[in-house]
Amino acid sequence: MVHRWETPGSVWLEDEHTAQFELASSEGLGRVEREAQSRGRLPDIAHLLGASLPLSCDCSPIYPEGFAFCPTCGAPLDKLAGRTRTPPDWWGPWSDRLLPRHVPHGLSVTALALGDSLEDRPAAPAPGRPDRSMPAPPNAHCVFAAGTFGFSAQRLIALAHARNVLQYWDPLGAAWHVMAAEDNTADLTFSAPASSYAWLPEPDPLRGEVGLVPTDRGLRRLFIDPVSETWRTESVFDGRLASAPGAMRRHLACLVNGDQGVRLWSAHSDMSNEVVYECDAPAGHWERPLGYDGKLFWLHAQGQMVWQPDAPPQWIAWPAGWSPRLQFGGPTQSRDGRLWLIGHDGQAYSFLELGRADGQLEALSGARLGFASLLFRRGHAVVGEPWGQEHVEDPHDDDAMVLPLLRGFNNNRSQPSGLVLRFHQYTGMAEDALAGRILPRTTVEWIGKRNVILDDIARLARPLECVPFVYDNCLWLHHPDWNQVRGWHLDALP
Length: 494
Description:
By secondary structure, the chain is mainly beta. The chain folds into two domains: 2-79, no CATH class; 93-489, Methylamine Dehydrogenase, Chain H. It has three helices and 39 strands.
């Protein structure tokens, strides 16, 4: 005989003879297979659902939510419901909605106070080492998101969008699981480069709800079931996407490849009032959108698309002979709040003002890498106007090149803060360093009030493929060539 137990979120079955509990169903999850509840997965399932685990008895390997004592022997249980303190979510810095409006959204900028922890470490030149590691995902070219997704505990997922593979990290089993699609026709493939990818998180998710994700066939709402290790999607918009979606206040928009060129699809956040605009712009994949000053910007090798909600988009081609250097980081800000993008006219580098057909040009003496107000010329920070002179603290840094990966937001422009890669003894062109050239020595550094060396890397290639993310109160750094993801402890973030 089987006894049925119902909790506010789940249904459990208790075997009368063995006294063991088994999950029958849970809110937001699909059919729960018996095979999914292997003993190796039960600790993770208990944390996800807020169930209870045994401390000393072996009557059952798992108990329903809210159980404080074993109903068979009376032994106390590890009651997980309501106990876990959830770290902040991470959706990639380009989805950080906690940034103020005067900071461009869509760049590698985060509002998390990472420097408060990292700058407590011994300052440079003291070398540092990672505090933690985890195995790299089986499909290593991926983007990461960490969130509760409507469950009781935060979890990490890694989406290899070029291969249609969604991966789930089980922290208690210390293993990656490749999740299967519930529907064989579902497809998360988005064949654009990683620099073009962006998903939009759901601020108040249902159980298992991840958010809006771009695919080659349209915009989809993604749901995961970590118990059964499956995922499913709901269609939001069908079309051949040319870009990832962007959000501006209560509006969503993305670019779509049509028969006659590119179109811009927009809707309210509740998916009402859909509008499609025809655009005289080149087809193909675009960079992920940038939100600033009430507008969305999409950048392309041939120009920029500028859109303000409830108005037609504007396509602006780059000046004749001028080509952008999108791989250098992204737009930067001048002190008056305008956005600028670095490019080359065949003779020299220059900054071009964005958002205007007659944008101003500012000549440069050399390449500058970075975004927002985290900008470097060679090994020196540029703390004034983007085209101003670099701030030289150590002349030896002339023989180095700094590539910013992640800016930690602060209001002090004269004291930039963020995660960077420093290429030592490198005097070549920036384009070569960011391509396939092997860099003999690279240090991972946090710069701020104190400069801290987090790690030393030998023979790094393709540094643009380094992916920083925050999960489980750690800052992690992943590269597809590495077998291990490197992590550094952070104090418990608010």
